Amino acid sequence: MAVKLWIDVEDLFEYARGNPRPSGIQRLAFEIYKALQARPDAADFVRFVRHDTPRNSFYVVQWAEVVSLFSGLTESVPEPAQPLPPGPILPHAPSRQFIRKLVHRLPFSIRAHVTNLMLTHSWALHAWINFFNAMALGVKIRLMRLVRRVRPAPQPKPSQQTSTPSEPELVKPECFDAFGRDAAPDDILLVLGSPWSHPDYAKLIQAQQRRGLRFALLVYDLIPLRRPEWCDRGLVRVFRAWFDTVFPLCDQIFAISRATADDVEAYMLERSIALPSRVHPIPIGTSFGVTDARVSARRTARLPIPGSYALIVSTIEARKNHILLFRIWRRMLEEMPPEQVPTLIFAGRVGWLVDDLMRQIANTDNLNGKLILIENPTDAELLALYEGCQFTLFPSFFEGWGLPVTESLALGKPCLTSDRTSLPESGGNLARRFDPDNLHDAYSAIRGVVEDPAGLARWEAQVRREFKPVSWSVTAEALLAGLEHPLAVRTEPSLPQMVEEEADLSAPIRLGMRAR
Q1: What is the pTM of this model?
Q2: What is the CATH number of domain 289-466?
């Protein structure tokens, strides 16, 4: 019997309750799920599970249910284009637009407090909903057990020659029993998403380890722990508590980049948490469903004219450093003829810690129309935006990998990125880099591209000619190999794997790679 992978997808279902579009974590995790499920032997060892809270365990969900949920996120109807709001950003569901407008009319001194109060109320409501759902599930299970105990066994007919009564028919769904019945010692509980909101995840894992299961975790980044200034204080506390209790339970830790692997190792050393082995960086695929559905790409009314703009695909938050691009574009518009400056497109939802940026943009009338926000673009719109841009930008201060960078290169578009953390890994020698703390350095790099269309054309041709995409099946196989799964396909090691194998394990933990 093959060693089974029990993949925890609860966080995807939780995320879908309050968000209209998937973030990079959900996209990346789903692509790995899909690659594992696509293997011809997947039925023998790949299972997807959600949390069975009353029993501190899991129950099985079908792959079709996971696909349906994710499709609902990626096929959401786009919101109309709108100017950037000048005040704090409330949750962006359409039903809350009216409340958001009312809050923006409040004096600035109390607006943030009202926003925090409303967000706290929203989080508390979600917590109560989860509590009552768990209670309802517990009541359902108890009723099923009661029915099983009190339901009389059917009596045999006189003509039947039986020595014992037949077993009563079970009435509870098969999924409640499947994990408990089928999970075996040496099976692997695998977490590829973001279950950090679970209040006592360590207890859930310990219960499975007592049954002999192994536990493996994929880490995206430690941003709330390494750079708490860019995160909500509550998130920092939750993140630290989660990782400090879960890291010691890991039998294997994976990371989405060498930079993240180094961060994890350094953090565990600082917190005196024993490493089960070196953290294993895995190769990350370079395309999503958005690039697989090229035939469905279509332009909508809110998209700009192809060839007229530069693009950044990202949630607007302080860490992503959109404000650097705002300053560079404002300066270019002051020093260059406006018709020579491409429109700057922010594609993504408005996030947190960007109130000052929103106010500045609003006060300049969106740089006189030279800056456009396209909130929550659909996959088809994202594809159209990539294909129509002159180049892409990613000035982030800190990343776990850099999905917009590889997505841009996979679609043949040049990308200018920050030179920090994992971005030199994701961009390789095809992306151009600048110091995100140095306005002059970034301005020179970006203006140089804008003023040299012939050079940009040569750069794009180089990207299309030299970029080597990574299949998500390679990512999935690297996971299986790192788990030493008997069904892993043995291949030549990827670059991150070779870096790990050649490392001197007695040397101090490095703080990140500067180049690939």
Answers
A1: 0.76
A2: 3.40.50.2000
